[in-house]
Amino acid sequence: SVVRNALFCLETAANQKENHVYTKALLAYAFALAGNTEKRKALLDSLEKEAVRKDGSVHWQRPGKELEAGLPHHRHRAPSAEVEMTAYVLLAQLTSQPGPAQEELAFASLIAKWISSQQNPNGGFSSTQ
């Protein structure tokens, strides 16, 4: 009953008109783990509309956190929240039953490309998640 109540709470949150992109990413992964394919797909469809497509990769960022133009030549690493939410979208994308379709894998590879570009020289990330 605890899990059922928790899922009910998440469904209520998912049905709100305005959800933050980070919240959608977490909800998509939670519904993927719970096996709720309809909610997972609806959230992933919504997230895909908010995706940032750049340099052959895909990621998500918080509203108002666009990168500044004219940065020096060093490679920019996104804040940890962007890395985390993009990673949650990737997990939701790959957590489908019986398994991800070919188009989901193709989209997931674009997400993975961006995440791998966020690694620091030691192989870690700005996020601890």
TrEMBL record:
One of its GO terms (cellular component) is extracellular space. Residues 2-129 form the Alpha-macroglobulin-like TED domain. This is PZP protein.
